[in-house]
Request: fold
Amino acid sequence: MSNSNNTSSTGETAESSSLSALVSTLAPVAVISGAYLAVFLILRRSKRRYYAPRTYLGSLRESERSPPLPNGLFNWIGSFWRIPDIYALQHQSLDAYLYIRYLQMALVLCFVGCIITWPVLFPINATGGGGQKELDILSYSNVNPDTHKNRYFAHVFVSWAYFGFVMYLIMRECIFYINLRQAFLLSPFYSERISSRTVLFTCVPDNYLNEAKLRQVFGQNAKNIWITARTDEVDDLVKERDKVAMKLEKAEIKLIKLANKARQKAIKNGANASEADKQAITGDAESGSIAARWLSAKSRPTHRTGPLGLIGKKVDTINWCRAELERLIPEAEAVQAKYRSGAFKNIPGVFIEFTSQQAAEAAAQMLAHHQGLHMSNRVVGIRPSEVIWKSLAVPWWQLVIRRYIVLAFIAALIIFWAIPVAVVGAISNINYLATEYSWLSWLTDIPKVILGVITGLLPSVALAILMSLVPIIMRLCAKLAGEPSISGVELFTQNAYFAFQVIQVFLVTTLSSSAPAVIEQIINAPNETPRILAQGLPKASNFYITYFIVQGLTIATSVLTQVVGFFIFTILYKFLANTPRALYQKWSNLSAISWGSTMPVYTNIVVIAITYSCIAPLMLGWATIAMFLFYFAWRYNVFFVTDTQIDTRGLIYPKALKQLFVGVYLGEICMLGLFIAGTAPGPVILMVIFIIFTVLFHYSLNTALDPLLYNMPMSLLAEEESARLLDGEAGASHSNGNDKFVDEHDLNGDGIVESAEEQVAHSRAARKAAAAHSKGNFLTRFLKPWIYSDYATLRNLVPRHVSLPQYTPEIIENAYNPPSVTSQAPLLWIPADPAGVSKQEIAHTSKIIPITDEGCILNEKGKLEWDEEGTRPPVWEEKILY
Reply:
């Protein structure tokens, strides 16, 4: 009995910092987040390029831009909230919209969890007689299994209600996604793209790398066929050509800057520069003669021709690059022509454009070859820019071997990473370790506030830093496994990184946080093992409360404010971008969200919240706050800051939704284990029944919906083809090309899509009257997505009258050729200067490679100036919507 008392006393000592850790974590994090937010509110008003580039940036089409927000400190928030989420679908991408919808659904899951669990489990746990202290009185661990065992029935039925809600929401959102994806992909704006009619087949056998053979298989529906071949020789020459061209551009700019700096110095010393400037205007001078008026030959840009520019002959960079380009440009053109003539060995990757989207989808769903794993990998809707060309050369047998090797490596990586993650988890439980192990007793002398920071803030921050390295490795693994597209790499990373998050951030940390205390107590009092397990394991939730605080406040405010990124951007743009091209690229390129590394983080947070929902319900409150902050921050970024570079056609959404089943299973298994530890046969039986129900529900859901998640139904494709003609006539009066967005349930009463401004102001208008059913109330809309979020309804949410520019024959001919085959010598862009050096350099360099000094000048102070918000620069290229 004395052991039991000692154990209890030890437990209370270990518990005593739960509230202290919460406060110690919350205080510094709140201060940091408040400072970030203050900086954001101030900078947002003036730094439009960084905090609202989507409202005006010239690299975006008008239809891709967002409405500007008011410029006050706080008056923008109301206008921001009035923009419906569906705006992201109509102005950016399906992925962008579903990303913020997922965060919204995660918020709903956590908030509804509070409503379901708190009113019942808080009083049940708080009066459970377990003798716990501080935050632990609200958890399952405060229910004494010896005296209050019947209270476990409350946990059973509450878990039924909440886990049932989670599963229904997953099903509902999968149905919503299927209908929305079909409506989006069948809209003219998407279906008329060449990628929607094109299928990539990999692992094509050698005897089918022949256009005639392929046309025999696919018949008259095959319109254009691109059989890929090895491009090593083309790649090397084009890469070398472009490398030398950029070296020449930088050398020309350096020459201009040096000459003008010397000229300005001479003018300050009383020299008359008018005669030299006059010669610059008249031109037809010897190469370099204008710069030579201000610079000696030794002052011109030079480099060494050896490796890394450290050894070898020292040469004049401009003259050397011109000579090299005179050789490389025709050689590159010759090898490109050689590729087009079919002189290189074919590889087992074929792109086939079909006559229609319906024919392409039918070809993607058919069995193309009679041998296993031949032509079995096919991707429909792939854009040329997202093809990983090296993966197309991988034969079928290598794909199998590579996949197993990669999976084995990831498994080993998870095991290896368990060591540092376990250390982080142990730090969070340092109070108990210091009490039980004498060689750590000195830790008890640390002030309570500092100890709270060590056990609360430090592990959370360390874990976040540790995990940031993993997605890079996962993407590399995906490419090594032979994924043929960047979108496929992101989906692979989403799967692998989620598994990594669950095992490392959740399970390993949970076990390492609770195991030392639990094992030691069981050794001291083996006869009380059930009580120790029932009371000890739930305490690991304290770590995740602080983890949610760090993630929700620090990470969310960092996503919103981007303070560090802003200063990095400013430094790079103002001081390190020293060419016109670098200035333009830094100014015009928007940051993009990496779906594969962001979605798993938030999915894992929800999984943790679901797992602990009925064990430590307080966690759901912090998870709700965290998910709200994430939703707010990413919603702002999607609308005003980021761009979509990787298009998964929305597949990130159902993948993340179905990963939430992990939380349901873990929650059920943990509850079952706790009931077994508490020797409560009734709750055990009820939990087993519900686990069986969950498995059957999960299996039925996958069987029914999986084919619709990844394929387009022929019935809709046929109907849409016919309806498109009627749509064209009905929408003729509205096809003015304006961008449009509509709230999820709302069009105006006449079924006419409103303008962007009208829809922002009246985003809660009535749904289209042509719907075959009533609008319904909130509850019926939620419970019956197959009625109120069906294809006909969601079809009205996507742009119906935005037309694509017509493809030229040249664009179609080269659409799915490797980029090195179609790449032309780049246009060099240098600044115009008062001395006229640029004009002379253009006169001589243009004989070899295109070059211009339009759109940028070198001012009297030697700084580059260009019209950031005016006319398009000469290196601008129109984005082709393949």
